[in-house]
Write a structure and sequence with these properties.
This protein has 215 residues and is of the alpha/beta class. 49% of the residues lie in helices and 16% in strands. The chain has a single domain, classed as P-loop containing nucleotide triphosphate hydrolases (Rossmann fold, 3-Layer(aba) Sandwich), CATH 3.40.50.300. The strands form 2 sheets. Strands 2-6-1-7-8 form a 5-stranded parallel β-sheet. The protein has a 3-stranded antiparallel β-sheet with strand order 3-4-5, with no helix packed on it. Strand 3 and strand 4 form a beta hairpin. The radius of gyration is 16 Å and the shape is globular. The mean pLDDT is 95. It binds cytidine-5'-diphosphate. The site of cytidine-5'-diphosphate has 15 residues, from helix 2, helix 4 and helix 9.
Length: 215
């Protein structure tokens, strides 16, 4: 029984950073499930797929020529690690993630990340839908302001431009979509430990998750 730690939470809560560090510390594999929705969005935007066509979008998701290689993400031969972080791609990802057929199309791919010696899975529904039997479930959250600050810094560091008011509005719109959608809405999984990181560094959060896992 290969161990899984799920880390779910809202946009820009820091779960990506925390999941990455926890996986490193334990020598576990990492599933960045949000990247799969972003890759589907990027692929659909580039092909000009009709964003209202659920069936066509599910086909795109099902046939993603994706490859993960030591923190780098490839679509075919092209490295898209930065391209998928653009706001337009994130927004589109958040919209198509509400479509049941798209979620279904990415289900098997997500399960396949569970390999020895273990997996840290980062997303919205890792503990509720994809790995309900996980050994440890964490729900990572932070205030809207703290999350907007983090997202701002992330974008600037990647060389993108960013505007605080737009980011706040965008975060709130994304929270609303993630929590109110009919399929796999963002809620803490049963038995999840809730961790509010508004006043915490990523490293503090990592230590807390590792302490929970050890017990
Ligand atoms: O940066 P942000 O947290 O917004 O996004 P992400 O974790 O990279 O995921 C991109 C989008 O995919 C999110 O806005 C979610 O709506 C969606 N998503 C999802 O529905 N289920 C997951 N397991 C992961 C992401």
């Amino acid at each position: 029984n290969i161990p899984v730690i799920t880390i779910d939470g809202p946009t820009a809560s820091g779960k990506g950073t925390v999941a990455h560090k926890v996986a490193d510390r334990l020598g576990f594999h990492l599933l960045d499930s949000g990247a799969l929705y972003r890759l589907t969005a990027l692929s659909a935007l580039r092909r000009g797929t009709d964003l209202r066509d659920e069936h066509a979008l599910a086909k795109v998701a099902e046939h993603l020529p994706v490859r993960f290689n030591g923190g780098h993400i490839y679509l075919g031969t092209e490295e898209v690690s930065n391209a998928i972080r653009q706001e337009e791609v994130g927004n589109t990802a958040s919209k198509i993630a509400a479509l049941p057929a798209v979620r279904q199309a990415l289900y098997g791919l997500q399960l396949s990340f569970r390999e020895t010696p273990g997996l840290v899975a980062d997303g919205r529904d890792m503990g509720t839908v994809i790995f309900p039997g996980a050994q440890l479930k964490v729900f990572l959250t932070a205030s809207v302001e703290a999350r907007a600050q983090r997202r701002y810094k992330q974008l600037i560091d990647k060389g993108f431009s960013a505007n605080m008011d737009d980011l706040l509005a965008d975060l709130q719109a994304r929270d609303a979509r993630d929590t109110q959608r009919a399929v796999a809405p963002l809620v803490p999984a049963e038995g999840a430990h809730i961790l509010d990181t508004s006043q915490m560094t990523a490293d503090d959060a990592v230590e807390q998750v590792l302490a929970w896992y050890a017990h």
